[in-house]
TrEMBL record:
This is Probable membrane transporter protein. PANTHER family: MEMBRANE TRANSPORTER PROTEIN-RELATED, TRANSMEMBRANE PROTEIN YFCA. Keywords: Cell membrane, Membrane, Transmembrane, Transmembrane helix, Transport. GO terms for cellular component: plasma membrane. It is a multi-pass membrane protein. It holds the Pfam family TauE. It is found in: Cell membrane. The chain crosses the membrane at residues 28-53, 65-86, 92-115, 127-145. It comes from the Bacteria. Its main location: membrane. Signal peptide: none annotated. The keyword Protein biosynthesis does not apply. Belongs to the 4-toluene sulfonate uptake permease (TSUP) (TC 2.A.102) family.
Length: 149
């Protein structure tokens, strides 16, 4: 499911489709997008759908969109950690590995900011969505190979 969601979001982004959420609808559409994102994240562990398309539909400028996505992913990650702790599924060993994984993630953020400032928005979006499609297809192939084995 994760691979399909990532590839689908990448394809949607490359298609040029841009949803719009009117100001009047944001009061009820935001919570619905959050609920749907939580439901999908509970099965996949990924918080990108439909939060990212929803935030894009708000027509934020590039920097505000990146900040909104970062805030959304941070809050979602903290909620996941709280839920794991509440259920007793949080383990210090896994947390240590996750903390170590923050080092390359932080480097990726710095490189991404550097690239965003030097690329046109159109080129950055194209590269981003192509990478998501590739990652999604990779996940689909891995899942298919695991099921076949």
């Amino acid at each position: 499911m994760l691979g399909v969601l990532l590839a689908g979001y990448g394809t949607l982004g490359l298609s040029g489709w841009r949803g719009r959420v009117p100001q009047a609808a944001q009061r009820w559409a935001g919570p619905l997008a959050g609920l749907a994102t939580g439901a999908i994240a509970s099965t996949t562990g990924v918080f990108i759908m439909p939060a990212a398309p929803y935030l894009q539909a708000l027509d934020l400028d590039r920097e505000d969109l990146v900040q909104a996505l970062g805030l959304s992913f941070t809050v979602s990650t903290l909620a996941l950690a709280a839920m794991l702790a509440w259920r007793g599924d949080w383990h210090a060993g896994a947390a240590t590995g996750s903390l170590l994984a923050l080092l390359p993630a932080a480097l990726g953020i710095v490189v991404g900011q550097w690239l965003r400032q030097r690329m046109s928005a159109a080129v950055f979006r194209r590269c981003f969505f192509i990478a998501l499609i590739g990652l999604g297809l990779h996940q689909c192939v891995r899942a298919a190979m695991t099921m076949a084995a």
